[in-house]
Amino acid sequence: MSKIKTIFPDPENQALSAPVNGVDHTGAAVNMRVVTEKPLTLFLNSQEIVTIMTIGDYPEYLAVGYLINQNMLQDALDITSIDYDDDLDVIVIRTKIETNFEEKMKKKVRTSGCAQGTVFGDVIDAFDDIKLNTNATLLTSWLYTLTKKINTIPSLYLGVGAIHGSVLCSKDEPLAYFEDVGRHNAVDKVAGWMAMNDISADDKIFYTTGRLTSEMVIKTVMMGIPILISRSGFTAWGVELAQKSGLTLIGRARGKRFVALSGIDRITFDANEKPVEPKKKPTAPKAAIAELEGNDEWFQDPGRYRGIVPAIVLAGGLSRRMGGIDKSLIELGNKPMIAHAVTSLEKQAGPLMINANGDTGRFDALSLPVEEDVISGHAGPLAGVLTAMRWAQKNTRDAKWIVTTAADTPFLPDDLVVRLMQAAGHNFTTIALACSGDRIHPVVGMWPIGIADELETWLNTEENRKVLAFVENYTLAKVQFSGKFIDDIEIDPFFNVNTPEDLEVAKAVLAEIEN
């Protein structure tokens, strides 16, 4: 089989959405785009089979996949021609052998799928005869990587919502991602794409955004795919059918969490975190620790952190993947990107400062102090952390910690500072870093100011630039955060904008949150 190009959604296709006007809950005017929905009538040879409500893209894949999943077409090689009339919204598939499904079409099972899915009775009969590949494997590291990749691929869902997606994957790589108003349509597009490109199913992974219903299980098994994953939940009949067929069924897959209810033998748990005893290097005097010992209220009250815990937004990067443009000042939601981080932090901590190099006047509109790195030569994020510590020592009297984040993280959690502080606790040699999914975010953290001299000594050696290498010298507290959910998609609270593609995703997410 020749190498097949991957296929992903095209959110810029204006034919798939339409502009509408209205008002919101305040009576303010709203201009937005909504997903389109149009009929597609499918003929197999001379017989009308079904009229499908669809967004209208990839009608050939949808039609072929529908027939295959309904057991009306065994192989794409049986097809002699496909004729699609966009004006009439009709598609005709002709085959080598004459077909007649008059009796078959009398046996229908209405499913729970969106847009009124249907499964014909003999499909359920054929389901019992399919044998899935028992040697297929799913590494949990693949699963975690896939969920992150799929949730950040630019899509119509992120742009306008009200749509389902289905993704065919190989190991930790998405191969084909289709969307439609009904999840069964998205599945059928995948089936048609596989058939028309001669894609083997026996080692593939199938991901869907919808519930794991009987229909989803049946279609996945009919395609011969041994592993089905969703970020949503299950239905009892879906689980029963999966167990009967030997399908690996995984639901509620979000971040590094999931539930498997069938086919568990295929799963290899290679990405489970093992607790590691942290290295400790006591440097703070006992008197300083005793100063707050037993004063738990100081650590628990979010209101006390403003004016006590300086917050610094790191904007000293070179933005190479943005073509050298200062990404912190790129407009996102009618204000500079850095303003989103500033707005979040000023509610949680303070005073605030921006760490940036070059012309500091470009941040005048934010009315915040701006400090250049105290270490020359673009020494990386740790230079910004050291700069923040030195600034805090000069400008705050009682600060014991600083909190840092990056300028390109617009979706910071509202409880960032309080939870980092709680993790740092009474130990002035503890560094608390934020985590989401399976990632540590080295520049989002709480740092004890008392280690400033040691950090400066560390940075005086040019090879010492990696954040986590420095952190290894201290007690590390990892603080796990979850993001906001837009429908069933979890948005990484530390999603950072590194590329133009990331910027488009951030714009879509922000628009969805504001809506």
Number of DSSP helical runs: 15
What share of the residues does DSSP label as strand, in percent?
25-35%
Helix content: 25-40%
| Measured distance between first and last alpha carbons | 45 Å
Largest sheet: 7 strands, mixed
Outline type? elongated
Task: Describe, in plain words, how this protein is organized in 3D.
With 515 residues, the chain is α/β, with parallel strands linked by helices. Helices cover 28% and strands 27% of the residues. It contains 15 helices and 25 strands. It has a 7-stranded mixed β-sheet, sandwiched between helices. A 6-stranded mixed β-sheet has the order 11-10-12-13-14-15, with helices on both faces. The longest helix is centred in the last third of the chain and has 15 residues. The chain is elongated, with a radius of gyration of 27 Å.
Descriptive labels:
elongated; alpha/beta; single chain; 15 helices; six-stranded mixed beta sheet; seven-stranded mixed beta sheet; 515 residues
Question: How is this structure best summarized?
Answer:
The chain is of the alpha/beta class and 515 residues long. 28% of the residues lie in helices and 27% in strands. It has helices at 59-69, 121-127, 140-152, 156-160, 183-196, 214-223, 236-245, 286-292, 296-300, 337-346, 381-395, 416-424, 452-459, 467-471, 500-514; strands at 17-23, 29-35, 38-44, 47-54, 79-85, 90-95, 108-110, 118-120, 138-139, 164-170, 173-180, 205-208, 227-230, 248-254, 257-262, 267-268, 306-314, 350-355, 370-371, 401-406, 430-436, 439-448, 475-480, 485-486, 489-490.
